[in-house]
Specification:
4-stranded parallel β-sheet, binds adenosine monophosphate, globular, alpha/beta, binds zinc ion, Isoleucyl-tRNA Synthetase, Domain 1, single chain, Rossmann fold
Length: 491
């Protein structure tokens, strides 16, 4: 029995919002993790902040969770269908480092980013290279069961033998067979068939290679998630997460091979929960379109990591979100205001679950109680983080709430949002406190905006002038008009 509203989640399997009722005392949750041959970018971080929000929602409902996040340190091939060169090996050659060094370096960078974003650590971070023997066993079992066929390029899973193949993606199999992304593989029976094992081409010796019944080579890229999740969470578990791109191919193939392996006619995983994509200035983030900013770039530019988290949570996880400078500026300004307002309320209590928060409420404060119900309803309704953020801001402005009640509401909202407001100093939010710390480009930008505002005022375009003032405020710049002209300072 959980208290408060029933937690409801959008299940990609079935494409509708469903009651989430755990099937075990401890909910097993698997989140597809990073491939560690490059830095995780801001889009990837959306997937991890989203999975973290789900963990916080489960915690709020006092549902124990065991979360596994895999570290893909076996190189994916360049193409989705597992053909082509190995990406880790390409990175190693490019950076003149060993594959182990590459993997260790980018794994650390991943942890640095998720830690800075307040992502709760998973219980286990299995590395794919540690599970290759299990993957070989898994593929051998599929072979024994008659689900595979062997080609010179590897062992393939025959998707026509998988009843319901592609249900998750609502796959139109005919359409997919014609799909442009699917490249030709000599001898492949169905275009949707995928490699369980990639056998080395004659004359090509990979750096990362393992011996298997199908020759030296490397596992196909869908295999590790099936194998490691079952090894660490049991054969069936409740939740699998990832970005929507995985709903179309990677997760479809994970399901096909896992259900073939288990052969018990049961759905392998009950809830598939996917986050929508982060766009950059309204464009899809494509690996081919040059470097995508990462968290370190934002921090370098003077943003607090929590400003990025706040920006993400300001959108619902199932909506596309457009990353623009204006949007993070606004998030940074909101974060600064929140930190400033919460400073006066410290110390905050610990209110991580609905029941704990309820117990902490001063009994006579009906206003705080209503806010708490509001937070509960928002998180329970498929994790409506924008509503939680709005309720938090509203409670901070509310003059009818008691100080103690407000502390509980803020602590509860913070436990759900993970912004770390309990300890966040305004000074930390804005590292650009003193104009002397600004670099010349930033000063130039500010002065250009001020000049534009002066021009707008001269044109009696008050609307535009106010807009520019708001943009400056979002940058932490306070403009004062004096008889000698405008002056500015950092707030
Ligand atoms: P990858 O390293 O490409 O396997 O991606 C790691 C996670 O980030 C996966 O769950 C992806 O679905 C997710 N992801 C990749 N790009 C984006 C994006 N632009 N927005 C949101 N999630 C993304
Ligand atoms: Zn996966």
């Amino acid at each position: 029995m959980t208290s408060g509203q029933q937690l409801r989640l959008y299940n990609s399997l079935g494409r509708r919002i469903m009651d989430f009722v755990p099937s075990a005392d401890v909910v097993g949750m698997y989140s597809c993790g990073p491939t560690v041959y490059h830095f995780a970018h801001l889009g990837n971080m959306r997937a991890y902040v989203f999975a973290d929000t789900l963990r916080r929602a489960l915690r709020w409902k006092a549902i124990p969770v065991r979360q596994v996040v895999n570290i893909t340190d076996v190189g994916h091939a360049v193409a989705d269908s597992d053909t082509g060169e190995d990406k880790i090996e390409m990175a190693a050659a490019r950076e003149e480092r060993s594959v182990e060094e590459i993997a260790a370096f980018y794994t650390k960078a991943f942890f640095d980013d998720t830690t800075a974003l307040n992502v709760l650590p998973a219980d286990v971070y299995p590395r794919a290279t540690e599970y290759v023997p299990d993957m070989i066993e898994f593929a051998a079992r599929l072979e024994e069961l008659g689900y595979t066929y062997l080609l010179p390029s590897g062992l393939y899973f025959d998707t026509s033998k998988s009843p319901g193949y592609g249900t998750l993606a609502l796959l139109d199999l005919e359409g997919q067979r014609e799909g442009a992304r699917v490249e030709q593989i000599e001898g492949r029976i169905n275009k949707s068939d995928f490699a369980l094992w990639r056998t080395e081409e004659p004359g090509v010796r990979r750096v990362m290679r393992w011996k298997s019944p199908w020759g030296w080579g490397a596992p196909g890229w869908h295999l590790e998630c099936s194998v490691m999740s079952m090894a660490l969470l049991g054969q069936h578990f409740d939740i699998h997460t990832g970005g929507v791109d995985h709903r179309e191919l990677h997760h479809v193939n994970e399901i096909a091979q896992s259900e073939a392996y288990l052969g018990d006619g049961q759905p392998w995983v009950r809830f598939w929960v996917h986050n929508e994509f982060l766009l950059m200035n309204n464009a899809k983030i494509a690996k081919s379109s040059g470097p995508v900013p990462r968290l370190a770039d934002l921090v370098e530019a003077g943003y607090h990591p929590m400003a990025y988290r706040l920006f993400l949570l300001g959108g619902h996880y199932r909506s596309q979100l457009d990353f623009t400078t204006n949007a993070v500026d606004a998030a940074q300004a909101t974060l600064r205001r929140l930190a400033g307002r919460v400073e006066a309320l410290r110390p905050l209590p610990v209110a991580e679950t609905y029941d704990a928060a309820r117990a902490l409420l001063p009994p006579e404060d009906k206003v705080a109680a209503a806010y708490l119900e509001h937070l509960d309803a928002a998180i329970a309704a498929d994790m409506a983080t924008p509503k939680i953020l709005a309720a938090l801001q509203e409670s901070l402005r509310d003059t009818d709430i008691s100080a103690e009640g407000l502390r509980v509401v803020v602590a509860a909202a913070d436990a759900l949002l993970g912004l770390g407001l309990a300890g966040l100093e305004v000074r930390e939010v804005d590292r650009r406190r003193s104009a002397a710390d600004l670099d010349p480009a930033e000063v130039e930008l500010i002065e250009r905006k001020i000049a534009d505002r002066t021009q707008a005022r001269m044109d009696r375009n008050w609307g535009r002038a106010d807009e520019i003032r708001a943009e400056l405020e979002a940058l932490g710049v306070q403009v004062t008009d004096t008889p000698a002209g405008p002056t500015w300072e950092l707030t």
